[in-house]
Amino acid sequence: MPELPEVEVFVRCLQPIVGTLIRRAEVLDQRLNLDESKLSEARISSVDRRGKHIVIGLGTAGDLVIHLRMSGRLRLQRSTEETRYTRMILHLDSGERVYFINPRRLGTVILYPKGFNPQLGVEPLSTAFTSEALAQMTARSRSPIKPFLLDQRRIAGIGNIYASEALWRSGISPERASSTLERDEIARLHRSIGSVLNDAIQGQGTTLGHSVSDYHPSVGEQGEFQNRLSVYGRETESCERCGNQIVRIKQGGRSTYYCRECQT
Ligand SMILES: [Zn+2]
């Protein structure tokens, strides 16, 4: 499932479309419930990320917001590459096309005519996300720290994979009540969130290459960073820090992976 780093890589790769005009939008999946006419002749003013959302700014036409969910992805290319899973095509005046590919139809594309204004928390890679800001949030929460990190209304963009990884890097148990974290633990967690997200963006970027022509069809599902995860999906393997066995537990219906020995 694409989390912040994967979405960020898509957004960076889509920067060349800023300034182009959507000649025509072709909606191939009626379930998207999207009015093609509202998109045609709209000029793309920006492509940004907010949490796990891709926000394509269309000036007075509003914001076109894509959420990839489980298996959605985007491709940008000149050639015709329609597959049975292609749900939408934006034909740009540059001759390029943006393909929205969505095999399981879980991803969404929504036009917000008045602009996208979601109930999302702080961006973890922004300057607003300080150790102090994190301390203020944890102090008020009795939730265990792992589900705390998944709550998009607090911090936007962190999902199941990077929450587990950040907690392993900071040596904190996912079961700790958020309000019991000490200042030095919060500082470590804050650093770990930044480092794991940045490492993942870099890893995905490596897979993808930096040019649009290298656009990798499977990004968002599998990137190079997949091979560098320390705990996620590594149940019964040895912890690379202490050698103890990694365990999997369930928290709020989601799997959490961690090392009981060095995460306390
Ligand atoms: Zn360990």
Q: Can you give a write-up of this model?
A:
Strand 9 and strand 10 form a beta hairpin. The two termini are about 25 Å apart. Helix 1 packs across helix 6, helix 3 packs across helix 6 and helix 5 (about 160-170) crosses helix 6. It is elongated and about 55 Å long. The relative contact order is 0.15. The chain has six helices and ten strands, in the order αβαβββββββααααββ. With about 260 residues, the chain is α+β, with helices and mostly antiparallel strands. The chain has helices at about 5-15, 35-40, 130-140, 145-150, 160-170, 185-210; strands at about 20-25, 45-50, 55, 65, 75, 85-90, 95-100, 110, 245-250, 255-260. The longest helix has 26 residues, at about 185-210. It folds into two domains: about 5-110, Alpha-Beta Barrel (N-terminal domain of MutM-like DNA repair proteins); about 130-230, Helicase, Ruva Protein, domain 3. The strands form three sheets. It has a four-stranded antiparallel β-sheet with strand order 1-6-7-5. Strands 2-3-4-8 form a four-stranded antiparallel β-sheet, covered by helices on one side. The protein has a two-stranded antiparallel sheet with strand order 9-10. The structure holds zinc ion. Zinc ion (ZN) binds near residues 241 and 262.
Short description:
The chain is an alpha+beta fold and 264 residues long. It contains 6 helices and 10 strands, in the order H-E-H-E-E-E-E-E-E-E-H-H-H-H-E-E.
Bin the strand percentage: 15-25%
CATH C-level class of the largest domain: Alpha Beta
CATH superfamily of the largest domain: MutM-like, N-terminal
Low-confidence stretches: 208-222
Compute the average pLDDT. 90
CATH architecture of the largest domain: Alpha-Beta Barrel
Order of helices and strands: HEHEEEEEEEHHHHEE
Net shape: elongated
Question: What count of helical segments does DSSP give?
Answer: 6
Strands side by side in the biggest sheet:
1-6-7-5
Domain count, please report it.
2
